[in-house]
Known about the structure:
The protein contains one helix and 19 strands. It has one helix at 218-232, and strands spanning 7-10, 12-15, 36-42, 50-55, 73-78, 83-91, 94-96, 107-114, 117-124, 130-139, 148-156, 164-171, 174-175, 184-186, 193-203, 209-216, 250-251, 260-265, 267-269.
Amino acid sequence: MKKLTLYLSILAVLSIALASCQERIDIPADELPPAVVIEGRITDETGFNFVRLSYSEPAFTTSDTPPYINNARVVVTDLTTSNEYVFQELRQGFYSHGVFEGTPGNNYSLDVRFDNQHYYSEGTMPSPPQVDTVTYVYREETILRKEGYYLLFSGKFDKSEVGYYRWQVFTNDSIFNNSSEQLAISDEFLEEEVVNYELPYKLEAGDRIRMEMYSVERSIYNYFTELSSVLLNDGGVFSQPPANPTTNILNVNIPEKPPLGYFQVSGVTT
Length: 270
């Protein structure tokens, strides 16, 4: 797998580190009964794999921590090799496996059970993205963007079939997590070789930067595209009523009542 570590100098040093960090996504919603939230990700690298279990909260809650789901049985299975990996709860509602490392092209399942509830999902791991360089550029303020430094990505895409990708960018170990920055793209809109593709992440001098690029399945691309639409919804008279993004996880016991969240099976380049 190709590894990139880039050190940029913008008055102070910017660095792309390799340590993993997870995200929490808040979805605006009406007052509804708590729903199960499953956020899972497995990759072809150790250290990037987790499943987070919790219940949804009211939109205007003042709590910083959701009600976590403890003592669940969380199993990831390589359906190609029949190997099972039991994820352990390392902290409240957060499950992981110390040595799991997926294989691109293999099929995987996620099986989650707790309190007589059963959730299941499957996915095929894409090959990791081919990243050539990551650099930065300074931009003046315009109507469409603020003044600052922006990341530029160069890489190649296999155009034999449509591919889908997701970026996560961290500054000083904090993830960009607003509506315009939940970036997922389809390479059907890109050339086979991309040079200096600008990512919409405004940086400041002295920021410490880490970028993770994931190849994802279409269901995950759709999920984060829908999520961005939900977060951009301003509630105006011409806006569609907000709806939860479409999950790729099945409620085995009550199929018509799926959980919130997603199971992302990815190749990753950092």
